[in-house]
Amino acid sequence: MPQSIQAFAGSPVHVVDGDTLDVGGIRYRLHGIDAPEAAQVCAGRDGGSWKCGQDSIRVMEELTGGKSVECDDRGHDAYGRTIAVCTAAGVEINALMIEQGMAWAFRKYSQDYVKAEDAARRRGVGIWQAPTETAWDFRAHKWKSSLSAAPDRACPIKGNINRKHERIYHVPWSKDYGKTRIDVAKGERWFCTEEEAIAAGWRAPLWGHE
């Protein structure tokens, strides 16, 4: 598939989470990495814990804030996001998130960042301070634990309509999943998959700042 580089000098960059950006009206999922989810807490070096999901968002904001961002298109995922390698002021963001211990190499889809991850692990930075749950395991266990509370046990995704009348869906690992209540009378609903929610006009929440 041909690759294309999109430059967004001066375009607003919105950090969705630690591995997803909205740039120039396009949603980019960073190729080859998987950052902690916004609600995720990781094990710390001192035996405690830290909000790795929120920290990964903060680091992404620091890397992209006020900078010219370029993204190299690598195709699309099942949710319609553009998979990309992105740079901020000429420095690759994907690699920096791995090097700073703010994301895992997403080996299921790519081996591109395995060596950088191994180096981060040896240094014990970020998510490598102590053994901790990966983002994909976190999502899996949150999904499983949510099934018993959903009206249809195969469909635990909450399709909420907020005060601004925005349709936002919350997956079980979402930071606001627990406090979100579904009122079918208001037009809110449950979904079985993210693809289904997106097709119906709902969007994922945005956790970062512009």
Structure notes:
It is a single chain. This protein is an alpha+beta fold and 210 residues long. The chain folds into 2 domains: 5-132, OB fold (Dihydrolipoamide Acetyltransferase, E2P), CATH 2.40.50.90; 136-199, no CATH class. The chain is built from 5 helices and 14 strands. Strands 1, 2, 3, 4, 8, 9 and 10 form a 7-stranded mixed beta sheet that branches. It is globular and about 50 Å long.
> Low-confidence parts lasting 5 or more residues at pLDDT below 50?
none
Residues in helix, %: 10-25%
User: How many structural units, i.e. domains?
Assistant: 2
- Give the SSE string: EEEEEEEHEEEHEHHEEEH
Name of the top-level CATH class of the largest domain: Mainly Beta
Q: What's the CATH architecture name of the largest domain?
A: Beta Barrel
Tell me the β content: 25-35%
Quote the average pLDDT: 92
The biggest sheet amounts to: 7 strands, mixed
Distance between the termini: 31 Å
Question: How many beta strands in the DSSP annotation?
Answer: 14
The CATH topology of the largest domain is what? OB fold (Dihydrolipoamide Acetyltransferase, E2P)
How many helix segments?
5
- As a whole number of angstroms, the C-alpha radius of gyration is 17 Å
Shape: globular
Derived from helix and strand composition plus strand pairing, the structural class reads alpha+beta
